[in-house]
Amino acid sequence: MRAWRISKANRATDLSGKGAAIEGGRWNDAEVPAVYLGLSPGICVLETFVHQTRRPVIPMKITVLELPDEPGLYLEPALNDLPEGWASLPADRPSMAYGTAWLGRNEQLGLILPSAVMRIERNIMLNPRHPAMAVVQIVEVLDFAYDERLFSVRP
Questions:
Q1: Please, which residues have CB within 8 angstroms of residue 131's CB and are 6 or more apart in sequence?
Q2: Which residue segment(s) compose the domain that 11 sits in?
Q3: CA 19 to CA 11: how far, in whole Å?
């Protein structure tokens, strides 16, 4: 299975989950490592763009990863099995508690989830403490820049 991540250049190959542990994320509490990826490059663009307030001035990369193709390594809950408020803005306790509990169980490598930005797209959160993390491969790291039109003011 292919997955992608857009990040600061200095974190492009870091799969430790430390970045997500700094403040927590939609699906993890602070101090709980997690690696967030998109299951398409396009959702990575949307997921990172919604957090921008201006054109990034630091170098960015898009990392292409190959995840093991063993279905038992992934959990993809049905939308109605997710906690109420999982897509709230900003992320709130229901989704953070759900994902943190999943990470703590250490039963699967990846939790496949809908995007709060575009629910028909999917993201995956990897558990960096799962033994199968050892077989996750970085395939390619490419330079990344948002298309200038995304920052254009339109009448």
A1: none
A2: 2-144
A3: 8
